Each structure stands twice: as structure tokens, then as C-alpha cells.
Amino acid sequence: MSGFSVLLKKEWRENSRNFKVLWIPIAFIIFGILEPVTNHFLPEIMKSVGNMPEGADFQWPEFKGEDIFSSLLGQYQFIGILIIVLAFMGSISGERKNGTATLLYVRPLSYGHYFLSKWLVTNGVVLGSVWLGILAAWYYIEILFNHVDAWEVFAFIATYSIWIVFVVTVVLALSAWLPTGGAAGLAIFATLIFQIIDSLIGTYWTVSPWKVAIYATYWFQPNADMSDLWMSIIITVLFIIVLIIFGSSMAKRNASKTTV
Amino acid sequence: MTQLLQVVDLTKKYGSTKVVDTVSFELEEHTSTALIGPNGSGKTTTLSMLAGLVPQTSGTLQFQSTARQDIQSIIGFLPQYPKFFSWLSALEFTEMAARLSGVETRKAVMEAKKTLEFVGLGDSLSKKTGTFSGGMKQRLGLAQAIVHKPKLILLDEPVSALDPVGRRQVMNLLKEIQQETTILYSTHILNDAEEMTDQLLFLRQGKLVEQGSLDDVRSRYAEPRIIIEFEKEQELQRFTEMAPWHVSANGLTVAIDVLTEGVGMPAIIALLHGQSFLVRKIERQTASLEEIFMKVAVI
């Protein structure tokens, strides 16, 4: 186990010293704050700088706090995931490419520990950022909109977190398998583009990891049918476990491709 | 001497290209072996296979009483251009290397400090490796390769990227390390090989074309000659007429091929002395390792 704690420490140092533990939370918090604030002030912003014709009266839809969580989710599902992919696509492939991995791989290293150390620290950074972002949004929703029940928010956060862990696992497993460019491309496909595919033709199936994020918002709807959510969560967790095993074995198989 | 490693028919193929082709050799404990060959002759691939980085296509590596999975803990490896995590300090990196190689947590910091001081980085313990110069990186690379006291150290061109001063320093360190461990290093700087080696392995296009001690190889390829430089040209003339061997003259010097003429220094000195030749200099010359290299590894 000592090897594992050494690797965890290394990952933590890497993420803190290249400031990922700072800028990723800040990015998520900014989106978390902007969503309720811009939605609240949009009518006034449009009135003063929107170039509306004299006398025009536009009826803005009445948003509720719960709707703001859903639209924040839309932001995170695109820009948030892009941030995750871009920040971590080279986690393993980058170390191979620049040769820093060589001095790790010549040691008696468990590739399971190697992959898991990256998985744990990356998830820590990303989940912390997502949580802080959603909590920041909640604070402004409480001030600018209406009260949302705490248990609903926490159930939303917990469910959405499973999707985020899935995204992180996909990115790391692909980084273990492919060179950075390929990992990035495929990760963007598997997380961003496949969401669209899943929503277009996925009406035929209701159980899918790509639907977990949408199901997370069901917690805000009192009468939603939750049965698909649970099955989707189980499937997602299974995917995550398989991807961890795949990523560890790919890291081991590709160790010989490190730059010597 | 005890054998540390036996390599039998080690082969690495990439596609249909054999990068390393049925290479066999042995390493004795506490010796240093130089792996010599031009670029692309398979030196780095051979070292990478021994380090457990690259799996061999065929052949065996038999380490003295060590199971394959434990081999990496008794090996230290220094790549030609070692790359470090730029955000770690020298001490943090060396400590991490020690712990990953199985050194206890409590001992790791102490060993890392001691090793860094040994390689001359005692003043740069907390400096980030990203700020290191080429020579400092090479020394840090050496530190991470020896911090866990491995039985075998594999060094890929340990000094070729360094300036003469850096080279001298690293060579001196290696000589000290050599007393406690076994070293296998690749090089194409033959002065270094001449300076520190018990065994030479010549690689050409992936094949081991020559091996042996420096003296062995020398005696096989060196074509020793005896060179005599005379005071005057008349003396040289007189010598060529009297000498029963084939001599080649050039200016005031003559050269006699020891092996083809079957002659030794005593016979020549006896002749020179007996006939009172006026001689300025007499010496026995052997080919340098570089000449041997050109013959064995290049052609």
C-alpha cells in the first residue's frame, strides 16, 4: 500500500502545483453564479442595452429556482465536460509521451494503483469543483429566486456526481489507451457528442449512463418516475468499474510505449 | 566472482525488423560492462528490456535467485535523457523514487538526502527539477537510479549529453558506485569505456559481434606494432638493411608489425643495443579502442 500512497501524493502535488485545484473550481463556481444572476437580471439587461424598440414589451418567462438548476446543468454538460476533458486528457498519455513516466515504470509499480491514484485525485478535484459550483448557484437561487429544498439539491448533486465520475473515468481510461490527441477526440465523442446521439435516438431506451444527468433533475419534479434513474445509476457504476479495469490494463500494456 | 545476470538469446522484433537479435552475455557481480555500438545498433532497446520497460520477443533473462516480478526492485535505470516532473523538487522526486522502489517511508527521506549529496546536489534539495541544467538533471537521474541501492544499474549513454566538466564529474561518481554494485552502461564515447570497464559488448545492427575484456579485445584487434625513431636517417638506413624483419619506414621512424613478423621487444632491443644504433624513442603501440570500434562495430 505504500506505493499507492506515494502515487496519491504525487498526483495531489501535480494537481495543486499546476493550479488545477484552483482554476477548475473557479471555472465551475463562475458558471454556478452566472446562471442565476444573468437569468434574474436578463429583463433589465435587455431593457438597458438590448436595443429594444420603443414601447416594445417582451414577456419574459417566469423562472423558478428549480429551472435554474436545470439550465446550469446544461452549461456544465457542455462547457464543464469540455473543461474536464481538456484538463485531464493527457493524464497518462502525456506522461508516456514526455518521458516522465519512464522513471515510474522502471520501478515495481502496480498499474492498478497507478490508475486508481489518478482516478481518485482527478475525481476529488472535479467533484469538489462541481459541488462548489452548484452550491454557489444554490446560494444565489435562494437570494434571487425561491427556496429549494435541501434534500432535493443534495439528491441532485449526488446523482449528477455519478455522471461526472463516469466522465472522469472515460477520460482517464482513454488516456491510458490512446495517445493524447486520440484520447481527447474519443473522450469528447463519448461524453459530449454521444449525449446528443443518446437524446436523439435514445428515446427507445430509458436506461443509459448518458441519461443520468437528465434524471438528476427529476429530483426537482415531485411526481417524476424514478425507476429508470436507479437502473441507469447501476449501469453507470458497472461501466465505471469496467473502465477502471480497462484503464489499468491499458496503462500496463502501453508502458513499453513510454519515451525512453 | 558470482554471476548476477545471464542473458540468453535476447531478441526484440518490431514487425519483421529485428532490433535486438539473439544477444547473449553474462554479468558478474561488482563489475562494469560497456555496451558499445553506433546509433541504432540496439543499445537502448537492450537496456529497456533488462529494465523491464519493453517485453522481449524471445530469449531469457535469468537474474541470480530473483523472481521476474521482483527484478525491478533490484534494478536502477537511467535513460539517456531522463525526464522529471518539473513541479517536484529534487528531494521530493528522489524520495518518491526510493519509496516506489520499496524503501521504507522513514528511511526514504534520509536515503534520498544522502544520495543527492553524494551526486553533488546537496545544495539543490528543494529546487524544482524544472529549473535544473543538463548536468544537474543527469546527476539527479543518477541519484534516482541508485537511491534504493540496486544490485544492477543500467545507464543509457550516461555522459554523452554532458560537457567535459560534467562528464568528468559523472564518470568519477560512476567509478565510486562501481565498487558497490554492478553497472551496465551503453556508450559511444570510447574514452569512457576505456576508463571504466571490465567487459566490452559490441553491438552492430542488433547483433552482439564481439565481447570480452578490454585486454582480450585489444589482443584480438589491436595489431600491435613496435615503433622506433632514429636520431639520423643513416641510422634508419643501416637498420633496415640489417633487420631480418619487414619494416615500413616513414621519415625517421620505422614500424614493425609484431604479429606478422613474430617478433618481440627483447629481440629488437638486443639488435639495437648490439649494433649501437642511435635511437631517440622506441615504443610498443596498440590500436585505440576507437580503431577497434571502427573495425568491429561499424563495418
Largest sheet properties of chain A: none
Portion of residues in helices of chain A? over 70%
The CATH superfamily label of the largest domain in chain B reads P-loop containing nucleotide triphosphate hydrolases
In N-to-C order, the SSE pattern of chain B is EEEHEEHHHEHEHEEHEHEEHHEH
**Most extensive chain contact?**
A-B, 26 and 34 residues
Helix and strand element order of chain A? HHHHHHHHHH
* Contiguous helical run count of chain B: 11
Instruction: Report how far the terminal alpha carbons of chain A are from each other.
Output: 27 Å
Mean pLDDT of chain A: 92
What's the shape of chain B? elongated
Q: Strand share of the residues of chain A?
A: under 5%
Give the integer mean of the pLDDT values of chain B.
89
Shape of chain A: elongated
CATH fold-type name of the largest domain in chain B? Rossmann fold
Q: Which residue ranges of chain A are poorly predicted, with pLDDT under 50 across at least 5 consecutive positions?
A: none
> What strand order characterises the main sheet of chain B?
5-6-7-3-8-9
Number of strand segments of chain B = 13
Low-confidence parts of chain B lasting 5 or more residues at pLDDT below 50?
Answer: none
Query: Helix tally of chain A?
Result: 10
Cα-based radius of gyration of chain B, to the nearest Å: 24 Å
Q: What structural class do the secondary elements of chain B suggest?
A: alpha/beta
Report what the structure shows:
The complex is a heterodimer of chains A (260) and B (299). Chain A is mainly alpha-helical and 260 residues long. Chain A has one domain (2-257). Chain A contains ten helices and no strands. Chain A is elongated. The model of chain A has no long low-confidence stretch (mean pLDDT 92). Chain B has two domains: 3-212, 3-Layer(aba) Sandwich (Rossmann fold); 221-286, Alpha-Beta Plaits. A six-stranded mixed beta sheet of chain B has the order 5-6-7-3-8-9, with helices on both faces. In chain B, strands 11-12-10-13 form a four-stranded antiparallel beta sheet. A three-stranded antiparallel beta sheet of chain B has the order 2-1-4, with helices on one face. The longest helix of chain B is centred in the middle third of the chain and has 15 residues, at 164-178. The model of chain B has no long low-confidence stretch (mean pLDDT 89). In chain B, helix 2 crosses helix 3 (105-118) and helix 4 (134-146) runs parallel beside helix 5. Chain B has helices at residues 43-50, 90-100, 105-118, 134-146, 164-178, 190-195, 214-221, 233-242, 258-261, 265-274, 289-298, and strands spanning 3-14, 17-28, 32-36, 58-63, 75-78, 152-156, 182-187, 199-204, 207-212, 225-230, 248-250, 253-257, 279-285.
